[in-house]
Each structure stands twice: as C-alpha cells, then as structure tokens.
Amino acid sequence: MGADYIPEDNLLSRVTPQRTLDLLEQCVAPNFNTVRVWGGGYYPDDWFYDICDELGLVVWQDFMFACANYRLPRDF
To answer: What confidence tens digit (pLDDT) does each residue in 10-22 have?
Structure first.
C-alpha cells in the first residue's frame, strides 16, 4: 500500500527536509510501505531517498517522461 509523491510545492526552494519528513511520516502512520515518485520531470533531492530509507519506505521511481506521450525526433 502506498502513495504517489509529486512535487510538494510549485516553488521548489520551499521544500525542506523537515517538511518532507512530516509528509512521509504521515504516509507511514497508516502503514504505507511504498512511495511512487511521479515521472513528470522532477527528481527529489538525495535527502528524500534517505528519509524514505530511514522510515522503511520502498521508492517506486518512475522514469522521466513516464506519464505522457511525447512527439520525439528520431535522434532522441
């Protein structure tokens, strides 16, 4: 059982380790064991993964561009 993690704020400078810890502790409280990191163009900082590790949360990491269809040139 788990949750989807998307950017917590549209201003990334307002995302802090303490704020993320509080959010992830709210995931652990109802016994979530997995957090899916949305693949929409944003990778969390390393401390996000450290917090998940400390809390025993498995991280399901989507790949970049995983959530949409893109018209890409052949070279891409």
So the answer is: 888 899 999 999 9
